[in-house]
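Action item from last week, closing it out:
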Amino acid sequence: MEKTFSIEDILFQYFSALPKTEREKFTINSSDDPKSLAEGWEEALTTDTADGIVESFRYYNVLNAISSRDEFCLSYNETDALIYPFVVKSIFNMFPDEIGKSLLKKAECSTVDNLINALKKPPAISIETRNSFRLTLMENINGPILSFLYSMVYLMGFSSGGESSFLTRVFPIVNKWDGHILDAGGGSGFAGLMLSTRGLTTYIDFSPFRARRAKAIAKMAAIDKGDGGFFEKMLDLIDLESGAFGLTLDRSLIPPLTTSITKNLHHESGDLSSIPKHLGPFDGAIITDVLEHTTHPEDVLSNVAMTLKPNAPLLLTVPTDKNGTNQRAMEDENGLTFPFLLHIRFFSDEMIEKMAQDAGLKVVEFHHFSYKKIQSQKPMPMEVMALLVKT
């Protein structure tokens, strides 16, 4: 029978692998043994209580601090990480038997433990085996594998990674929209929180943990928004995590928070490929930094489009196909075991136009942008923001 993994399972493996000196930094409920830590942090990280949210911020800050050493990272791609063998074995066991046997044969390994040892060798020796594992994963990715990896992502950081880009590129446009807006794939809840300052907003994410946390965070941010308050600590945590990519929030663009946001903002969890019709119809929608993580982005786009009123706008952001070409080359060159940032899909303008047409949408305009310049050349268009409208 196919094994599924809970947040507690992953945390238990992580804390079991850490030396006691590092585990003690995560002490919760006066306990620091792996089982108690896993149970305590699973509760704190999936709760919607104020105390649990505050504790979860402590968890992410401690994790960020100790992750300066590769072996202590909670990571699926860092081969020196103490949890890496557990991650590889878990994914391997989700492959069909014939796929797993074929992978072992290519790597000239008799068992999955031998395979893990081969993957952990220096890149010069292991690069072919690592790339073979990643390509096998990409060819056989499915719901349980994605669920496991996104549980990892949830535990790896609070930020969903796109908050800075949302604030500078998406929010100035959507802030002018009227009516009820859908935030599809709302992640950390930051975008939904910002959208609710302008009016009625519905946040939906596949993760019930994220949805519960985002709802609690909205309430806490509205109440404790002053200097040094909860909302400022949330912004500090986003900046801390996004700093790894050279990104920070432009806080001058953040509108004042009022208690009205708790009335304006509604939270749901569910599959974006089957959004309940009763949640709509919406006057507009955003899908930011979401479609690249899905196996069937066309289904997600079509379903979101079905919830829109006629002539309603939809704004999406995705990585470009040129970005994908560069990423795949980088993955091959460095021998990554898993796709970088779990980006499994990339998009050309033509692909977006085709998906839009099939979903009953029309492209109004494209805007290509990059997060950073590449040497002395013009910035490469790493991302595209597309404004669509329901026909």
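Closing note: Residues 163-390 form a domain with the Rossmann fold fold (CATH 3.40.50.150).
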